[in-house]
Amino acid sequence: MAPKAIRLVKEGNKHILIAVFIFFLIGANFLLAYQIPRENFQLILPVYILSFSGMLGLFWKWKGLKNWIGVFIFGLFLRLLLFNVTPPWSEDYARFLWDGEVVLSGENPYEFTPNQWMLNEELDDSTRFFEKSLPLLNSPDYFSVYPPLNQLLFATASFFSNGDIENGIIALRLILLGGEIGVFLLFLRVFRHLAIPARRVIFYWLNPFVIQEIIGNLHFEGLVLFFLLAFIWALTRHNKYLAGTFWGLAVSTKLLPLILLPSLFLFRRTRAHAFFWMGAILAISISFLPLIWEDAWGNFIQTLQLYQGKFEFNASIYYLGREIGYWIEGYNTIYYLTKILSGITFFLILYLSIKHKPQRLIPLIDLWVSVYMLYFLFQPVVHPWYVLPLLGISLFTNRIAPLVWSFSLIFSYQAYGKSPVEESVVWLFLEYALLLIALAWDYFPIFKEKLSESMYFKKFVGSLIVLFFISFWGCEPKEQKDARKIIEEAIEAHGGQESWDDLAEISFRKWTQLLLEDGSIEKETDQLISFSFQPEFSGKVTWIQDSVEHVLSFSNNKTHYSIAGNSIENTDFLASKKKDFDAAYYAFAQPWKLLEEEGSIFISEGIRQTPMGEAAVVRVDYGEGSDIWWYYFDPVSKKMMGNEVQLSDHRSLVENIDFNQVSPFTFYRTRKSYRINEAGEKLYLRADYLYDNFEFKFLN
């Protein structure tokens, strides 16, 4: 075959491959945005792999590309393809628009939580928009955590939405799309100035991770990257004031760029330049000015601390530290662990900045990549979109870890396949195993050299596969194991499982007073209750009401009810009374009864603040359609402090005030039940309970 013909065949094959890669990107991004819910990880993963492969394929085939207009148009097309989608994998957009509407109404978004806003009768602006958007919020009991510059952008989107959520989504998307176009142009401009291969922009501009998280799910980390790139561009123009302003705006959009502060103090082109710091301080001061009024600053900080001391998701070193905390203390030490890790992170960032002390722009950016990566590795919460600025700035360096992570972060969406969200040890292992390999490649030259040897590579991959299967077969949901341990410790504190199993009979008195919202008494009962456990479970509840004796009993798997000695045989009535009998036993038999509930899912939420103070918290899911319960245990004594339940029409809190010490058991004595709101605030006392006169017999 003639050389010309061979060349034409090769060119034809190249164009076919490019067409295939373009098809992968278009088709996969469309499916991810419009067709596949985030709960369907089995479909998300293969489609995402196709899309990511399309990006890598185009990077491979467009080696000598000089006309970047075509790449820009294609990336813009992929973003416009998602223009009409409601964010499929995140509900954050609803809070963005909520905060924007609050700002437009002339109120401070940091002053009220959404639930407080709806309950405040003085706020006449609880329009149809708020009523419609409240069910969409994923954190209606928390103050806003978004800095004031973000609030301005939210308000801008809300202004153009005219109270319509769909219009608000489009307005947010237009703002982010403008930022994305700016990012592309800044990449090309700064790449050219720093002699960096321009095709690296493909790793951002055509990356499905970027497209889905910014344009699809409407996350504002893309604007943070825009301001950081503008900072770099301003430095290449020797405009220190403008560079400081852009860095200040990055901080005002998301607080995270504050971790770059030590490096800026040490970088020769910023540390001693007053204009840089004037621009930064002025931008931050003006942006954060709204926090001064009406205790907004306190609410803002309170919510930030809550996120640091309560939530866990997709973490790495934090999860390892949590395991050590379990071994030492026996419970989730998140309250203390986050503070310890924050301190370690601060000192490591300071150490890295002092050690490298960058004198030129590329080393500064490379230090930023290390600082960002270090920060994320120690965090208890790492949502995928947090990594977007890290991915962008890494393109100025030869580091591959952020790009690899932009692929493996998709594994974190596996957690949404269950309700409530449940992370898998296997997928966490895979995600961070890939990241650690990439980090070793980036920061340990000997690893890179060894991995290039085929024999070493085979051994390494083999070891990785073995570790994967070990983790797969040995994994057990940590939160469930921890919850069971908390309950077992509570059982021991209340008398032990062995003593409970030896019970033959038990009887006691239960006095109940139900109260109305105005404090008046609705009903009062004084019951004698007995349960027998051998040879089979049975029980009886007796009380006097309106001078008439009522008896509710259960034996031989049948429910009986009599009034003044007359039996009631109505099937529906007896079924409802069986529920009353079960509730009486359930309330008394805690914590032993908890582990007897078949089909229940126990999840430890660690030690956190509750309406009764600091407690070890266990959430129990009794199955689809059932109410959600939270049980609170004293971290020191291990006794049950009380419980909280979300019913279909209200939320209740039962607080154990004191206990009966009836050797060998510790039973409740005084309990109080409150109606509460979703923020845990007590609305009114609903019931008083008193348990006493305990008598029991053992089998032996």
Please specify the SSE layout and strand pairing.
Blueprint: H1 3-34, H2 41-61, H3 68-80, H4 92-104, H5 114-119, H6 128-133, H7 148-161, H8 165-194, H9 202-205, H10 208-216, H11 221-236, H12 240-253, H13 261-266, H14 274-288, H15 296-310, H16 317-329, H17 334-356, H18 361-377, H19 388-394, H20 401-408, H21 425-443, H22 445-451, H23 454-474, H24 478-493, H25 497-501, E1 503-515, E2 521-532, E3 538-545, E4 548-555, E5 558-563, E6 566-567, H26 571-588, E7 601-610, E8 613-621, E9 628-633, E10 640-646, E11 651-662, E12 665-676, E13 682-698
Helix pairs in contact: 1-2, 1-10, 4-7, 7-8, 8-11, 11-12, 11-19, 12-14, 16-17, 17-18, 18-19, 20-21, 21-22, 21-23
Amino-to-carboxy terminus distance: 98 Å
* Largest sheet, spatial ordering of strands: 6-5-4-3-2-1-13-12-11-10-9-8-7
Query: Strand portion, in percent?
Result: 15-25%
Largest sheet geometry: 13 strands, antiparallel
Please identify the structural class as seen in this structure: alpha+beta
Mean pLDDT: 85
| Mass-distribution shape | elongated
Low-confidence stretches: 469-476
Binned, the helix content reads 40-55%
How many E strands?
13
State the helix count: 26
The Rg value, from CA coordinates, equals 30 Å
